[in-house]
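tl;dr need the bound structure. longer version: we got a ligand (adenosine-5'-diphosphate) that a collaborator sent over and nobodys looked at where it sits. i said id run it. heres the input, straight from their email, havent touched it
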Amino acid sequence: MREFDVIVVGELNADIIMRLDSPPEPGKEVLATDSLITLGSSSAICAVGLARLGLGVKFIGFVGDDDLGRFILRRLHGEGIEVEDVEIAKGEKTGFTVSLVHGGDRALVTEPGVMRKFDLKDEDFPKLSSARHLHISSPFLQESLRTATILREAKVRGLSTSLDPGWDPLDSRWDSLKPAFQHIDILLMNQVELERFSKGKGIGAIELPRRVIVKLGSMGSTGRWDGETVSQPAFPVAPVDTTGAGDSFNAGFLYAFLNGYDVQEAMRFGNACGALSCMALGGTEGFPRLDQVLKFLGK
Ligand code: ADP
């Protein structure tokens, strides 16, 4: 019997989100119409989503030795996530992202902080055995993380695995992640990332993993699942802030997958979580509880 459903190994940072009526220009100042300082990072938003849906979640990562780091730890703990192995890295600074939300889109600036230095130590590999699934997000923001090795160690220990590559800020390291693909059961990404990995050739150009889900924003999601083409439309909503929509989709999809839903149902569940998360400022603020998703889905 494994103690947790999902173990998330990855980056932790904060989000400073501001909604603007007009974009900022050098030398001038604009006032935000709404703002929020909250938990950020792809890994953390997904972990919170999984926990809210009722799964047992453990997080392994670093935060900096500062107020922001302690804020993140409190938030994760408050969501019922096991944080025993989230280390406060001495003398290091917690990363954060400034997100400027304007006209249905957002511009992001990230200070990676200590996430640059995080890796899972060899002696901690056995800790992976405490869960039945491993999820990793944003490997390109975590320069020290041995993504392929950790995924392999999880597979050796009988876990299923998922990865969301996120964006590569250098836009030059896409191929470097390919060795990890053989250890991934489910690859989750958006359309631009698919374009980069496939060099514009589309999903058919990706041999492994056999299960690939592509998030299409207001168009929903599509993918390839054991050779079958799958797709599900989005739910029509008027988004307030799409921060974390992709991570919320991931949480919903993985929840459904781990609970034995078929792939189309899991995509629908992910689309619902993505849509609901767009309805509030912040990555986790709009994330629903299980009964809210079921109600939204008319169940
Ligand atoms: P990412 O944040 O990774 O780029 P997307 O923007 O594709 O991901 O959003 C993830 C999911 O959230 C989508 O697949 C969709 O289900 C939902 N979603 C995102 N934007 C909207 C929107 N404008 N309307 C409805 N659903 C949305």
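gonna send this back to them w/ a short note. The first helix runs from residue 42 to 52.
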